[in-house]
Amino acid sequence: MSASPKAESEARRLERVFQQQLGFVWRCLRRFGVPAEHADDVTQEVLIVAAKKLELVPEGREKGFLFAIATRVGANAMRALHRREQTLLKYRRQADEPSGNQEQLSEQLRARQLLDEVMAELSEELRAPFVLFEIEEWSIEEIAEALELPIGTVGSRLRSARKAFSEAVRRRRARMDFRVGSANGT
Amino acid sequence: MEHEPMDPGRLLDDPGRLLDDPGRLLDDRAADPLEAQLLRSAKGEGPDESRRARILAAVAAAGVLGERGAAAGEKAGEKAGATLGRPGLVRGLLLAGATLGVPLTLWLLARPGRGTADDVPAVSVPSASAVVALQEPAAPPGLETRAAPALNDARDRTQAEAKQAPPEPSERNGPPDERAAPRRLRSPDALLRGHPAPRVAPTESLKDEVVAIQKVRQQLSLGNAPRALSLLNEYRRRFPNGHLSQEATLVKVEALLAAGQTAEAQRAGRAFLARHPGSPYGARMTALLGDPRLEQ
User: Count of CB contacts below 8 A, A vs B?
Assistant: First the structure.
């Protein structure tokens, strides 16, 4: 039995949206702290949740819809991971300092690792507009619509987010400089 | 030359610019180079084509994409499995996933306090990792390109030891992805033609496996490692050829660590890495083996 034209059209839309936005969802989850090794599975969960309700979302608003789901599902995943990590924490090596292997990672991987650490210092309230504006290059209006906030509030949060981001980077840089200085005996 | 940090808010300070062109850090020549580098590093991040295809295949297996979407997912899955030359395998996987219902992600199932129904899909499907686990044969010697360097190191360290170590019971009886006997999910056509039954019993068996592993994880979350190990033994008895055998071994290593049986955990974990070099659970197992206690 063939699908109805409406169902066919909706399936096409799902396919198109998922193909286009999969990377966006994945990156958002990463910036919200989901580790890379779990990001594929959580992305999949986001898409499945989205598939059930996407037909209710007006054309052109899919990204905001996906972002909202990614935020929620990502937060749940992080809570689940946290519980699991707590169980294993006492058996694991603490990863505060870069190990020899990490030192050998490429420049980009190290930058991403540092970005993860910096982003973890931003509150969720600040992180969302910052990620969407600075990394995903959304417009202020798009962010305001997706987060259901007044434009002025988005601007205010972006300012605060940039400040927090800069300060976190500055702290990391100072720490790295200290390490380098210590290693050189200065 | 020391970089003069920019005022992070200055690009947004002018309300008149807010709507027109608020300016992004990456477009600002005066931006802090390290900040810009961090932001740039995120731009190129994401799953590669193969992983994208696997995610879409797993979503399609959930049956939420409809006929056309499922076909697209199948196509994506075939693309993911193209290097394996086994499209029938992926087709079988998709059919099995859609009709049998493997867990979305076992680690999500383990959480005791889930969110609302909206937070978690009601369907139970293979995770992208599970898709990999089910469809990936072990890489032939010399072609193991997926493993991370750390994994390779761990594998090198433990090859000799693993040869001595007895495999997990289920792996003795026919592991899912052993080199000698790679798992072959049967295509829908083959199923319809009434070819011999698959090694693992259909629907209920798979669901029971999921539930069994979930119970183990629950006990582990509650800190009851002995009970978790006991349930794992029960799982091995009930499902000697289980689909979730690799997951079970991973959980077993966690449980052994939690129970303080580090030597046994080391043996089981390293043997696993040596036998399943391309396993999607490899990274997590390697992380467990990174426990300094295991070096003793």
Answer: 208
Q: Which of A100-109, B19-28, B94-103, B211-220 is the most confident on average?
A: B211-220
Query: Please, are residues B170 and B239 in contact by the beta-carbon 8 Å criterion?
Result: yes
**Secondary structure of A36-74 in the HEC alphabet?**
HHHHHHHHHHHHHHHHHHHHHCCCCCHHHHHHHHHHHHH
Handedness of CA A75, A81, A82, A83 (dihedral sign): positive
Mean pLDDT of A55-78: 90
What's the one-letter identity of residue B51? Answer: R
Which two three-digit tokens encode residue A120?
């973890």
> What whole-number percentage of chain B has pLDDT above 90?
4
Segment A34-50 shows an average pLDDT of 89
- Going by the DSSP 8-state scheme, the letter that residue A123 receives in this structure is -
Cβ–Cβ below 8 Å for B55 and A47: yes
* DSSP for residue A122: S
Put simply, the answer to whether A134 touches B287 (Cβ < 8 Å) is no
Q: Which residues of B touch A42 (CB under 8 A)?
A: 105
Tell me the mean pLDDT in the region B205-233.
83
Highest mean pLDDT among B95-104, B110-119, B154-163: B154-163
Judged against a pLDDT cut of 50, whether residue B139 lies above it is answered with no
What count of other Cβ atoms lies within 10 Å of the Cβ of residue B155? 20
3-state SS string over chain B? CCCCCCCCCHHHCCHHHHHHCCCCHHHCCCCCHHHHHHHHHHHCCCCCHHHHHHHHHHHHHCCCCHHHHHHHHHHHHHHHCHHHCCHHHHHHHHHHHHHHCCCCCHHHHCCCCCCCCCCCCCCCCCCHHHHHHHHCCCCCCCCCCCCCHHHHHHHHHHHHHHHHCCCCHHHHCCCCECCCCECCCCCHHHHHCCCCCCCCCCHHHHHHHHHHHHHHHHHHHCCCHHHHHHHHHHHHHHCCCCCCHHHHHHHHHHHHHHCCCHHHHHHHHHHHHHHCCCCCCHHHHHHHHCCHHHHC
More confident site: B179 or A108:
A108
| pLDDT band, very low/low/confident/very high, at B218 (cuts 50, 70, 90) | confident
CB contact under 8 A, A48 and B47: no
Q: Which residues contact A132 (CB under 8 A, 6 or more apart)?
A: A67, A138, A142, A143, A146
Residues 6+ apart with CB under 8 A from A57: A65
- Mean pLDDT (chain B) is 61
Average pLDDT over residues A57-69: 91
- Find the CB nearest B38 among A15, A37, A111: A111
**Better-predicted residue by pLDDT, A4 or B25:** B25
